């Protein structure tokens, strides 16, 4: 059939329109899908492309993600606090900065080699494929950013399932990262999610065969759920970090460090000091130094009783307490205001002298209230610290100059993170050595997760060759 000039120009016009539409469609693909099935399918297809990427190419994407994170850190921090009503903008910003500066990428993926008379065996770190990452409301942006970097460094793609209470913050972070990936020449949909959160969507994520690994960063419920899924799962669960102070500590520094750690992001971090066990000899001195800090306010029994009735719920039948989520991550001033007390703006932390059985000690409050318990000696402080940690194996802190005491606590408390003579956050690399993460896997043992945690070990053996001696 002969084509006339007119037909030809119509065909060209149509082809150009289609190409243009395809490009436009590509530009708006930000990883957010209407259904979980679509989100998983997109990440699944993207992983097929991404698995061809060299380590150098992965690093290029990660650099771009980190740069974009820094550029958007302040606006994301603002969004997190505005949306969730929890935490502090200045500290959320610092958390995001820490992710950009101290999250490890592909450099941690080291190959092992065994050589001998029989040749060479290589052990390398391969991708799982698509990972389902369930993220918390208490740290909605930094968890997404840090997991995204580590999981992509491991060669995976990710479907996120963020907490509904801070959904927009998590999704905005993900979109910023996807844009950075695209700008660095990477494929679309390395990171995906569903436009609206629902328990059904999370349940689909847990059960879909295309998801090869699940990572839950949150409370005990969701950790248990992923561990029961039948898939390879990493559980990063709750903590209730005790801080012990013995008579040999630099008490002035201990007072400062404990308040800094306890009030960081209004005590939202799972690693933050949640209760202090202090040896009797230095109890008054520690509290005296704490109160010299204008950010500290000591509450009395009456105020504490009112706070218990306000920030906790009590079950009528069992009498057991649980936290009232309305007050999680609220600042110290508003906690005081909730019981009809006024306080100056600079108040950041409420301290309370109490017994070890008090619910403020026993519950993971995630509010800037520090219960302080007096103990007879170090042995008793350590015994109570172990009880209060509830076997979470999460985080503990100690202030001491006695090497034997420090060593004994490190061994007996058996936590994933143990910080000596610093605020708790030194344990995730903020003012301390080492890389950072916001997915601290105590229950499943990966510890402070990095790219290695999100890889599978693969072995390749060549017999009788490639040995050079
Ligand atoms: P959460 O357990 O309420 O929620 C965590 C995630 O699990 C959210 O995405 C939520 O939507 C999902 N989820 C919870 N229950 C679910 C269910 N029944 N079905 C489907 N999905 C469900 O936790 P949170 O309040 O957002 O975060 C605070 C908790 O997380 C604290 O206990 C804190 O210690 C812990 N945390 C731990 C780490 C760590 O690295 N270990 C880091 C941050 C927070």
Automatic annotation (TrEMBL):
E.C. number(s) listed in UniProt: 1.2.1.-
Top enzyme category: oxidoreductase
Gene3D superfamilies xrefs: Aldehyde Dehydrogenase, Chain A, domain 1, Aldehyde Dehydrogenase, Chain A, domain 2
CDD domains in UniProt: ALDH_EutE
Domain Aldehyde dehydrogenase: 27-434
MF-aspect GO terms: oxidoreductase activity
Matching SUPFAM superfamilies: ALDH-like
Superkingdom per UniProt: Bacteria
Alphabetical UniProt keywords: NAD, Oxidoreductase
NCBIfam families, per the entry: PRK15398.1
Protein name from the UniProt record: Aldehyde dehydrogenase family protein
Organism: Clostridium moutaii
Lineage: Bacteria, Bacillati, Bacillota, Clostridia, Eubacteriales
